[in-house]
Amino acid sequence: MDKKTSLKDVANHIGVSAALVSYVMNGKEREARVSEEMVKKIKIAAAELNYQPNLIAKSLKMGTTKTIGLIVADISNPFFSNIARIIEDEAKKQGYVVIFGSSDENAAKQSDLIDVFTTRLVDAFIIAPAMNTVDQIQQILDKNVPVVLIDRFFPGLDVDCVHIDNYNASANAVKQLVKNGRKKIGMLAYDTTQLHMQERKRGYKAILKERNIRFRKEWLVEASYQEMDKDVATKLAAILQPLQIDALFFATNSLAVAGMKAISKMGIRVPGELAIISFDESEAFDFFYSPVTYVSQSLTDIGREAVRLVLQRLHNKSRKHHTVIVEARLVVRESCGNNL
Amino acid sequence: MDKKTSLKDVANHIGVSAALVSYVMNGKEREARVSEEMVKKIKIAAAELNYQPNLIAKSLKMGTTKTIGLIVADISNPFFSNIARIIEDEAKKQGYVVIFGSSDENAAKQSDLIDVFTTRLVDAFIIAPAMNTVDQIQQILDKNVPVVLIDRFFPGLDVDCVHIDNYNASANAVKQLVKNGRKKIGMLAYDTTQLHMQERKRGYKAILKERNIRFRKEWLVEASYQEMDKDVATKLAAILQPLQIDALFFATNSLAVAGMKAISKMGIRVPGELAIISFDESEAFDFFYSPVTYVSQSLTDIGREAVRLVLQRLHNKSRKHHTVIVEARLVVRESCGNNL
DNA sequence: CTGAAAGCGCTTACAG
DNA sequence: CTGAAAGCGCTTACAG
């Protein structure tokens, strides 16, 4: 890159000290009681020389980079890319920039990303943490770097976080299926210890119990993050062909999309033979032969609240941690239908 | 943030100069001929003190931030978020980090993002440029900062870029429709001067001409980026109800999704009454009642090549500019069917 | 109202 | 083989 004009350059240009220019550029002419005349002169010179401050130098001096590190499982997943968009917008409004990384639900990758971002002195983290990474989050907290968890969270970890009430959202979805006359309700979830997923399973089981429907272990199909397609092809297929259930509840949009492909390939009628409900959203939900009923999380709220919490903590490091519960509502459409 | 241990700290810890530690931490012990013993001592001390270099300080000194600025129209659009994921992965392999921003096809927003990223001294840009922003790109080039354009490009601008052959990709799609017996072929495109879109329209018109099908202006529907939904609802609807065409070609995935909603709401049979083909991909394409035929751009190639070009230029600023044409292939499925 | 100077944490030519 | 020193471009307490 060609030599850029520095603060010193503009100072020299009008024979004045760098300090003056710095004050003026940062709108501190009042505190420093710079004369109006001088302010004008400096502003003109800066514009003339097309001065743009070097934020790296500023960061080094100030110890703050105005950068937020965002770590999600996969930025190409629409759930996360939509949140990323909101975070980016909100951050920009406040003068922050966001760098991002995808962990692939892999603790080691997440740890690498945290290290890389730490090394670049991000002012704060927003993380949808992978399984078994509570120590990583604790380490960030120990360094007194702000972090807010989104989507996922850890029991007993005192940290800012933003997520829905997974238990209730799940329970409501299953209630809807029961209400529509379904008794043989399966669930496709991820095989993970992550609490948000446990809560979704717990909500499912709780409603079965409440409605006196026996929980059948083999109807709670668990797919691993790494081998999701394979697990859907074998484990889920096992209860779809021949069809043993009359309703299926998907714990995420990625599971739903994989499941819907299996369902349509097998020619299963939805909702006739099988009612379905999913978590999250997908463009595909509108176009499935039976528009899919889903639990809608407000991605806008998640992104906004995450940035809000980050900024609050940046301004007041010692305030106590907050958990923001974001709204989730069931968008009822044809796929959960009440006719067998 | 708590005080981190600096290079000086580890130097002091073993009573040695900062220079030595710097050489060792950067693997330059050979060039600086540091004794093996010392190397070991330093490495142990660094590990003990959990030393992590401050990359901001390094950046200031080196004039390089190992950061790539990525600007796309909208990071939440799967087309871009998928490319972003690839870019992120490739960049990470090379020790780069990516900061991103969404321009919303708005020249002013793009300009802001370029300024913000410039101010943060990104080493290079990867941009899917908005309409009428050739000057912005030229300005980056004038500063001798590497930039590679993806997806879109400008006539006559000498710059690295990666995109498909839009003319041929479009022509092939329309040929397929003609081959399947369609004669009244409409197109839904964006109303923009951007060359990639012009090329798509040109391919469409060229095939009509070649096959002696009269081009009808009212069947080339143009939607504005800003009011896409409205334009689809009115302008596209005008040729769908009553149905005046027997095939419809969508210039992007976003247009397709909007158009497909209109089509399904109107109860138009696909491909029976109307054959459709789209550019790009969408999860929805698999689930439309007639799986959608589409022009598949290799997002992996776009992302990879973009990063490759960026790095090449970073290593050799003066090499001449390359345009990489990435493969596009037609994925033929039911929706472009040959039965009326 | 304005300037000189220290210092943020690094790298690297230079001297020894 | 190792250290002292300058300098990257800023900010800000201090002195005048």
Helix content of chain A: 40-55%
User: Main beta sheet of chain A, described?
Assistant: 6 strands, parallel
- Kindly report the CATH topology of the largest domain in chain A: Rossmann fold
Q: Count of helical segments of chain A?
A: 12
Shape designation of chain A = elongated
C-alpha-based Rg of chain A, rounded:
26 Å
Strand tally of chain A: 12
Low-pLDDT residue intervals, each spanning 5 or more residues of chain A:
none
Cα(first) to Cα(last) distance of chain A is: 68 Å
- Please identify the top-level CATH class of the largest domain in chain A: Alpha Beta
Number of domains of chain A: 3
Strand content of chain A: 15-25%
| CATH architecture title of the largest domain in chain A | 3-Layer(aba) Sandwich
Q: How are the strands of the biggest sheet of chain A laid out side by side?
A: 2-1-3-4-5-11
Mean pLDDT across residues of chain A: 94
Instruction: Give the CATH superfamily of the largest domain in chain A.
Output: Response regulator
Order of helices and strands of chain A: HHHHEHEHEHEEHEHEHEHEEHEE
**Multimerization status:** homodimer
Domain HTH lacI-type (chains A, B): 5-62
Organism (chains A, B): Panacibacter microcysteis
GO molecular function (chains A, B): DNA-binding transcription factor activity; transcription cis-regulatory region binding
Protein name (chains A, B): LacI family DNA-binding transcriptional regulator
